[in-house]
Every structure is written in C-alpha cells, then in structure tokens.
Known about the structure:
Blueprint: H1 2-22, E1 26-30, E2 42-46, H2 47-81
Antiparallel strand pairs: 1-2
Helix pairs in contact: 1-2
Amino acid sequence: MKLLRWLVLPPVIVLAMAIAVANRAPVTFSLDPFDPETPALGLEVPLFLIILCSVFLGILIGGIGAWVQARRKKAAQAARTAPSSSALPALRDEA
Length: 95
C-alpha cells in the first residue's frame, strides 16, 4: 500500500502544480446567474484556486458519503448478527 502511494502521489502532485502554474489568470467567480457582466456576488480569484478547491470539495464529499455508507452497512450487519429477544429464555420468579 505504501509503495502504491509513493508511485501515485508524486505524479498527482506534479499534475496539480502544472495546473496551478498554467491557470494563474484571475477569473470572476460569480454566484449570480442572472447578471454575468456585473454580478451581485462575485470574486476575482485565480482559476487554479477554483479547480483545486472543487477537487478538494469533491474528495471531502465522497469521503463523507463512503463513511456514512460504511456505518450503515456495519449497523445493518450488527443488527442481523445480534441475538433476537425471542431466543433468550424468559426470566421468571420461582417464589
């Protein structure tokens, strides 16, 4: 696993650096779909920042989704393997 990480991670980092260097020009990041010329809410940021933040956000959302799915699967498996209450003997007072 560590060998795979050392084989994959450096090219990914080099690719991310190449994207950052090639896309340094500022662009308007706008959340106003009705007025693209003068948006009500717009920021001038480098394009690579938008790209890298989008990738990071996608990784974060995917990781959270995988974590939630694993917890649900584990809970369902625990519920299936837990002994049912009908299998337990009833406790009665013999007095």
